[in-house]
Design brief:
Blueprint: H1 10-19, H2 22-31, H3 36-61, H4 65-90, H5 99-107
Helix pairs in contact: 1-2, 1-3, 1-4, 2-3, 3-4, 3-5
Length: about 110
């Protein structure tokens, strides 16, 4: 992997963009100027985190069934997050369905 404009290897910067969800995603999206790989993963981190937060809020409003589904969604979200970390570190451009396409469009990294 090449170095990104952050001075880190691209795969390390991409992995770090997922660590604290939209917070680190936003940081890396704003500071990365050159690497479309890092910018894509940073934006996918933002989109994934926000989507998960919205799902949690909606499920929290729905009595009983929503409350039952929250831990299941949490477990699925955790597994997907781990996969995103692994794939970013391996240097793979692993796009989530729907969210990955949004991240690709919004990050301007369609050529990755």
């Amino acid at each position: 992997m090449a170095k990104s404009s952050t001075g880190m290897e691209e795969n390390v910067a991409a992995l770090l963009s997922y660590i604290f969800g939209f917070i680190t995603g936003l940081i890396f999206f704003l500071i990365e100027k050159e690497s479309k790989f890092v910018r894509f993963h940073a934006m996918q981190s933002i989109v994934f985190s926000v989507a998960l937060l919205i799902i949690y809020i909606i499920l929290g409003i729905i009595p009983v069934i929503g409350w039952i589904l929250i831990p299941i969604v949490g477990l699925i979200g955790f597994v997907v997050w781990i996969l995103l970390l692994i794939k970013a570190y391996q240097g793979n451009l692993w796009k989530l369905p729907v969210l990955g396409n949004l991240a690709e469009k919004w990050s301007g990294s369609a050529a990755v």
